User: Fold these one by one.
Assistant:
Number 1:
Amino acid sequence: MSEVERVSLAIERDLIERFDQLLARSGHSNRSEAIRDLMRGRVVEEEAVSGRAESVATVTIVYDHTKRDLADRLLEAGHDHHRMILATMHVHLDHDHCLEVMALRGKPAELRHFADHLIGMKGVRHGKLVMSSAGV
Ligand code: NI
């Protein structure tokens, strides 16, 4: 960890009280750690958008595998982007629904493009891309 700088912040009482309640529920040890996490997250997001470096990310989708051709189309999309996909976890949620989480590595714009493609497929109920970085 680099050198630590102390900063003081002016925050509305109502907001800090609500934030403290959230910390109590989320298991953060203290405010500083929680605020550092928020800042890191924002910095990682911003760097991912600017697209300079290769990023890692996860994309999570929930879909109905009984929808016509969807499982085949997802499989095909995966093979078309095999260099980008590090690992896939598949969970059969119930009779019709599957949860899939893919760990990805690549240029941020390519990761977003691939995730948008998956999430936009007919029969995909929910999807989210989470960009990350090993560098922060
Ligand atoms: Ni399944």
Note: The pocket of nickel (II) ion is lined by residues 65, 90, 92, 98 (CB under 6 Å).
Number 2:
Amino acid sequence: MSRDASALARECQRIDGRGYPAYKDLRGAYAFDDLTLFIDHVQGDPFAAPSKLRVRMPMEVAGFDREWVLDDVARVAVEDFVARAVRDAIAEHPADRGGSGKSGTIRIDAGGQEVIERSAAVLTPEWIEARVEVGLPAAGRRILGRKAEGLLCETLPRIARAGLLRDSLDEDALTGFVECVRNQAAIRAQLDERGLVAFVANGARLPRASGASDIPLEGDEVVPFESPEAFEVSLDLPYPLGDSHARTIRGMGIARGITLIVGGGYHGKSTLLKALERSVYDHVPGDGREYVVASPDLVKIRAEDGRRVARTDIHPFIGSLPGDRDTRDFSTDDASGSTSQAASIIEAIEVGAKGLLLDEDTCATNFMLRDARMQALVHRDHEPITPFVDRVAELHERLGVSTVLVMGGCGDYFEAADQVIAMRDYRPHDATADAKKIAEANPGSREREADAPIEAPRGRVPEASSIDASRGRRAVKIDVRGVDAMGFGREDLNLRGVEQLVDPSQTRAVGLAIHHAARELMGEGVTVAAILDALEARFDDEGLDFLDPFARRGEHPGALARPRRFEIGAALNRLRTLRISS
Ligand code: ADP
Ligand code: MG
């Protein structure tokens, strides 16, 4: 039952000057003329995590196209745009910050450069809702009732009207945003039929402002991407491109198979690969990478010594280890660079990766290569590693797994490569024919080292009882400490090697998804891939809210953003407690 806005004002006045816990009396729903305010969770004190509120506006008031609500791509784009609009409105209408602790702060978990389904704003046929966090005002621990009244009855509704009402949004920016995201989805949908794993539009601006920032580098020194003629493809767009009215877009196609990115140091190789890595997600207009689009099944792989590995069959890459350890069923609490890389590749393929992205900067050299001189010095019988160079072609031919590899330092991959992109002064060139000629003229004396052909990895079955998100009195304790680290129960889970996690709210969703999977999905014979299928089906049907216990009762779900299956699997595989039953 919702009360009206004047009841909220009266309640705020009534509790003025009382101890902070009296704020709990405000919990409930309040009907304004054009929206409803839900106060779901009230913080325990002014310094605690802020209170969780939702503002909901009926769709006939908000005025978004029904067609947008019903199409998943457009819906996510509108939700994302609205969350950003609410964030801008918060900056424009700051609340009175007077008071102790978090008094007067208002936050929304709007995204960064990527457009990802998230819990911050939700669009349904009936309504649109923004989920915000608010610091309820206090002096010391005494409630500032008048300030609370202003915050909840005036500032917050004003912010909601600025962000949720279509009439108050910039219409061109809104439709441009939705069309840009839809164009990206349309490009992604064409990749497969064109035999491509990725596309980089002419004019794309790939470099970032700094190594610590994801915003575009600005200035005259930025060299816009321009495809070599040989790799240029033209794809269709459902919506015109910017002001040009063009319904096609030209750029570089990266074909299925094996693609090498070569070139001198500091010529833009890693920048290109990083853009591909990120382009499994859509980007906001103006990012510079909004028309860099990759297949959603590409997985970045890197060496990650120290990681946990649980019963993974790494023998295609690592034969018998010292002490006769069986690498068909390999576990370790402290992987080496090469074993970690082998395990990450096998795990990714196990759950459906269709392409691998590797950068020499973050690969284990002994995993990637073994040249003729080293073959002569260290006999094969004493080297357990079958280097990646001897498996890369087979991965594609037998398992349909493509590879895009940055390799500036070694030509041993020339034979295997289908496409060689040479970066020079940030400009790509077609070096395929030259690389092939050089490989023929200098065959070298290194010998291929793979023996048995590679086979599809077996499906591993995780044990639910090995996964425990509880700590102390809390049944579920998942603390996100940034995009690449989380406390999961009593464990510190290190996700630095999982480079395609891009948002801390994805990290939180990963933690909750693993907990959910352990409670509801894992069982006898249920493989990691089957678990990820079930999670994805649930995300598709219900969105993200089901992950959060409060949201299951219809309340504010906290900050969540949708992770890919590969990142959920990668996090599960890195849990130090994980046991695999078969
Ligand atoms: P590499 O991997 O070939 O050594 P990087 O990709 O790390 O080179 O790029 C080196 C530097 O050049 C980085 O600081 C990057 O931001 C910058 N850079 C990359 N691409 C461009 C570009 N298209 N225009 C301007 N600067 C670029
Ligand atoms: Mg590099």
Note: The pocket of adenosine-5'-diphosphate (ligand 1) is lined by residues 206-207, 217, 221-223, 263, 265-271, 423, 426 (CB under 6 Å).
